[in-house]
Amino acid sequence: MTKKNTLIALVLLALTFFSASALDIPKGTFYFDNSLTKYSIVKFVFGSYSNPESYVMTMTNEGDNLWSITIPETVTGMYRYCFAETTIPDGMLNETFPNLKDRISNTRNEKRTATCELSIPVGWVFTPNSGNNWASGSWQQPGESTSYSGTLPVMFINTDGGVPITSKDEYVYAEYYIDNMGNDTFENVGSKDAPELMQIRGRGNYTWTAFDKKPYRLKLDSKTPLLGMKRNKHWALLAHADDNLSFLRNTVGFEVSRLMGLAWTPSQQPVEVVLNGDYIGLYMLTEIIRVEPDRVNITEQADYETDRFSITGGWLVEIDNYQEEEQIRTVEGNGKSIWSTYKSPEHLSDEQRTYLTGLINTTNAAIYVSDKTNNNWEKYIDPDTLACFYITQELLDDTESFHGSCFWHKENGDSTKIMFGPVWDFGNAFHRGTNRFIYDRPAFTQTWIGEIAKFPHFQEVVKKHWDRFARFHYKKMDAFINSFINQIYQAVMSDAARWPQYSNADILNDRENFKNYFNNKYQWLAEQWGTPETITGDVNLDGIVSSVDITIIYDILLGNTVPDEELATAADVSGDGIISAVDITIIYDILLGTNVPPEPETGIVINVQCNVAPYLYSWIYVNGHNNVLNGNWPGTQMTETTTTNDGITWWTHRFDVEYDAINIILNAGNSRNQTSNIEGLTPGNHYFIYDGNKTYQDVTNQYVF
Q1: d(CA 604, CA 699)
Q2: In this structure, are residues 139 and 128 in contact, taking their beta carbons and an 8 Å threshold?
Q3: Residues 506-524: pLDDT tens digits?
Q4: How many angstroms separate the first and last alpha carbons of the chain?
Q5: With a threshold of 0.85, does the pTM exceed it?
C-alpha cells in the first residue's frame, strides 16, 4: 500500500468511531511554523479523549521552517491535537490522546507543543509563542499582515528599548500617543514625533495567565483626559480575550450600573492598540477603581493610621477570590471563607486591621440571624446601593459576583455604611441558563447575598429599584447594544484576524446571542419581581395621580427642581418631548375625570425584508411554558406589506394584544430553513432582514448590514 493510500485508509478509519469531543480535523492542507521550536522533524498528533485510538502523522518540510500536512478527508469527533518531535512511528495507536501526549513528553522525554482544541483553519499556520517545550500557540493567516481597522482611535505604545511586558508587578517605562484616526469626537494625545511618557505592566489574574492577548495597567506621566474620559494618570487596557459575546459582557454590565444609579461606574472606550510596532488588537481603555474625587469619592485614609475616628473610613475593599498578602480573612455565617483585600488604605496598622475585621464580623453576624424581620444588618450595609448593585449582577447573570472583583466602600464616620460598588468584572456573565437567581446553585461561592435575599424588606427595596429600571431603562438596551456593535464592528474584524483563537468575527450572531441571554434573564426576573404598570400622570411613581404630581411639574417649570432623566421622562405626561403647562393640564383633566388621554399604542409589529413571504412562528412564556400565538409550527405566512419612508417594502404582521414581550422564529415553512429564536421583542416596530434560510439581521436601529 502506498504512503498516500495508507494515509487515506488511516483517516477514513477515524471516521468510524465516536468521541465525546467535537473537534474536527479538516480536509485540506495546513502548516506549522518551526522557527521557534526548531524540531528536527515535526509530527501531527491527535486523537480521542476516551476511545483508545490516536494518530501520528509526519509533516512535510517545505523549507524556511515551514512544515505542512494534507488531510484527505475530514476527521470528526476528535479531542485535541499537538505538534511533536517524536520518534513514535506514523499510524494509529491503541491509546487515548491524553495518554499518548503524556507518553511523548513524560515517558519518552520528547518535545511537543501544548495540546490544543482550537478549530484548524485550512491554509493557515500554527505559530508557537515560544521555543519552550509545551509552548502554546495560535493560528495565523499567511500572507496577510494584521493591522488596525482605522475606524477607532489607535493607541501606539513603545516601551524603552522595545522590551517585552512580562510582569504584573514591575512597570516598564514607555512612550505613547493616541491617533483619533480622523474621528473628531476624540482628541489626539501626543503624536508619533512628540509622544507622551507612561509606565506599563501586566494586570489581572486568570486573564493574564490564560491568554496570549494580555491585559495591561497604565500609569501616565501626568493626568490626561483620554478619549473623552476624565483626566487621570491611572488606566487599564482590558483585552476581554475571554468574551465570546462581541465584547458586550463588561460593556452592558457597566451601562446597567450607570442606569441603576450607582455612585460611580468606570468609563471605557474601545481603542485599537499597537505595542512596539505589533498590532495587538481591540482593547477597552478603562478607568480603574481608585479612591479619587472623580472615581470612588470617599475620604482617603492614611496607611498605618491609628486615630480612632480616622480609621472608620474611607475604606475601599474587594471581596476577593484569590488569597493576597494585604487581606483580611474571616468566615461567613455559612462556614465559607471571606477574603477581603483592602485597596485603600494599602497598608494597615493594628488599629486599622482590628477595625476592619470587626466591621466585617459584626455585619456578618447581623446578616445571619434566624429572624429575617430583624433588619439590623441595614445599620452596616446601605440596602439601596446593595439592591442596585445586585440587580446589575442579576441582569448579567454574573455568577461570579459577590465572589471576586466585588468592591465595597465606606466613608469616614461611625454611622456611615458599607456601600456596594463600583462594578468591575462581568467576564463570567451568561455562562449558564438564565432561569434562576445568581445565588441559586452558583458556580462560585458568593458572600452574603444569598442570605440577605431572605430578608423581606430587602426584597421590597429590590422591587422598588427593579421597577425603576424596568419602567425607564430596559427598552434602551437594544439600541445601546446595536450602537456599540456598530462602533466596534470593523475593529472586531481586525482583532479576529490578529487573534483567531479568540475570534468574535461572527459579531452579528454573537450580538444576537447576547441579546437573547439578556432579554431572557430580564423576562425571567420580570416573572419574579413583576413588570411595573405605567399610570398616565403619576409623575412621582407612587401609584396614584394627585396634586403632588402637578406640584412636581410646577417646580420643574419654575426652576426649583432640576430633573434627572427619569423624572424628566415621567413629567413629560403628554409624551411630546418637552415639559410644559400641557402636562399639568392633562393631570388636571385626569383628576376632574374629563378628557382622559388614550393610552399609547402598545402593539408589537414585525417587519421582514425577504424575497418571498416568510412564515412567522411566535410564542410567549407563561409560567415557564410556551404559549403559541399565531398557529403551530411553522406559524402563519406573512401576507400584509408596508413601505417605509426610504421606499423599502416589508412583509408585516401586527400583534394587537398588549403583550409585554414576544418571541419569534422566521422560517420558510419548514424546519430546514429557520432562524434561531428571536426573543424579548417589546411593543413597537421591529425590522429584520431574512435570507429565507437560517440567517437574519435585526436592523430595527438601522445597524450596519
Answers
A1: 16
A2: no
A3: 888 889 899 999 999 999 9
A4: 53
A5: no
